[in-house]
Amino acid sequence: MLSSVAAPILNTAHVAVTALLPISLVLLAHQRILNPLYGSYPTLYSLDTVISVAIIASVLKPFTLKRRWNWLAAALLLTTAPNSSYWVAVWAARGRRPVLGAGLTHVVIVAPLVFIFTNFVAEKVWPRITLLNGVSESQILLMLAGLSFCAFIVHLDFSSGATKSKKRGNDLASKSSLSSTQIKASLLAAFGALWYIISPSFANPILPHPLSETFTHRSGRLQIHAAVQSVTGLVVVGDTLPSPHGDDDSMHSARYLRVDHSLLGGVWMRDRAITLEHEPFVVDSYGAKLGDTVYSTFVLQEAARLVDSTKVGKTENWKSALTIGLGTGFSTSAFIRHGLNTTIVEIDPAVYNAARTWFGLPDPGVGNVFLEDARQFVERRAKEMQTATETNLFDIVVHDCFSGGGVPEHIFTTEFWSSLKQIMDTEGILVANFAGVANSDSSKMILHTLERNFRQCRAFHDWMSTLDEDKYNEEFINIVFFCTDSEAPMTFRKPKRSDYLGSHLRKHIFKSLDTREVSLDIIRERDSAKIEKYILTDKHNPLGDLQRKQGLHHWEVMRQVLNDVHWETF
Predict the structure, then answer these.
(1) Alpha-carbon gap, residue 331 to 387, rounded angstroms
(2) How many degrees, rounded to 5, is the angle at CA 549 between CA 547 and CA 552?
(3) Is residue 301 within a helix (H) or strand (E), and if so which, with residue range?
(4) How far apart are CA 438 and CA 464, in angstroms?
(5) Per-residue pLDDT tens over the stretch 493-543
(6) Phi-psi bin for 270: left (phi > 0), alpha (psi -120 to 50), beta?
(7) How far apart are CA 325 and CA 320, in angstroms?
(8) Rounded distance between C-alpha atoms, residue 413 and residue 463, angstroms
(9) Range(s) of the chain covered by CATH 3.40.50.150
(10) How many CA atoms lie within 13 A of 267 on its CB side?
(11) What is the pTM of this model?
(12) CATH code of domain 297-568
């Protein structure tokens, strides 16, 4: 028999776990619905506050609810949650105020459920269970709704007959008690069958993940080829289609790759896929023709091959390249097509699979693909180099890990660059992409940390026109840094036909490279006493927080690139 002390403790623990598991699953599903619509920063901005207020309100409420009514309220809220979460978030996002929109959705959806369950949440448990990647948000919420309805039935009170029967003896009371159990069992069985039939009608319009076949939007303007919940978020491959009514916008006939609310890249298709002098097209795994990249920053990365101030560059004898952060694989594909032995490090398997299946990435070869964290790979390879008899060093390293909405800050530190240099040729070229405002604390941190670790750097932008000095403080752009330890000043040769690989955009970007140079003097901190605070280390690294704050601006930029229906269909 439990002691008088142990029994209340175990009962409290039971109640806590009963509330903790459902609300943690609710938050998992809720964030998976909101992240593709808002991105992580706006979604998380007020979530903890809303949860805390709901918990306090629940604790201080001046009334009590019987447990069965708690379960009924939870069941009804969870039944409506798949659609209410999605549609409230969609409508709020159209107001173009992401923090307010996400916060409003939390208040309408999460706060009432937290109020009902009245407990805190174990946020990092469920995302690590990969089995849930194949379970939709609607399935999670409706499963919890069904269980809550069942709990409501279990807590229904059929004891009035039993109370009266006690006067007639223990046998009748026993029969009455058994009858109550039978009634509840019958109700549970009937409800289970009914819920199995009707629950799908409460699901929201979010597509199943993983997507088994191509989905075409009823407007005829959009197709989704793939959508899978993965390591970095929801990975989606979509096509913007020409309008059947002829009122095309600037982004029709393009294929894009997105993770949550960030675009990793895209290519032109259909009548916008053209090549120079009728050279062969790159095709996806189904034979569809693919054109130039939508984003010229990926072409800028390829300009590493144009460096002619190093020993390898002078002879154009580039042998090997390393890509950290794959995206659609546009620049990686170019290195492979130019004959470089190219190694790929990409943390998300779904991104790699998308690049291979939908964006024409060639097979990099056996032993050239590492689906893991870049720092883990670099440090392991650097350690292997210390004892290796043959040193296979990289001539070119492309580091493209800025999405605009967030950044893995641990691979931008002095310690990381130091390890990376150990696996690069002594005159190797580092190509590092930065997405954000040109003259910002984030860009200063990237520049000063690179210049602390490499002898020299130059940088170029992908802005569609001249980047005047006043635009350094306001425009959200991509800047590609080129850094090396070579003593000779870095120079770039003139491009030639073979560099273009049949691409009009490559020809345009390479020929205009000298007009795209970024003035690093504008970005650099002029007060030498303050430079140290911009050096990123493992112990001093505010880059992630700064980029998350820029995520709001990035959200607005993304909504200008694609219209609402593309962000709302996933």
Answers:
(1) 32
(2) 105
(3) helix 297-302
(4) 15
(5) 999 999 999 999 999 999 999 999 999 999 999 888 899 999 999 999 999
(6) left
(7) 16
(8) 27
(9) 297-568
(10) 31
(11) 0.83
(12) 3.40.50.150
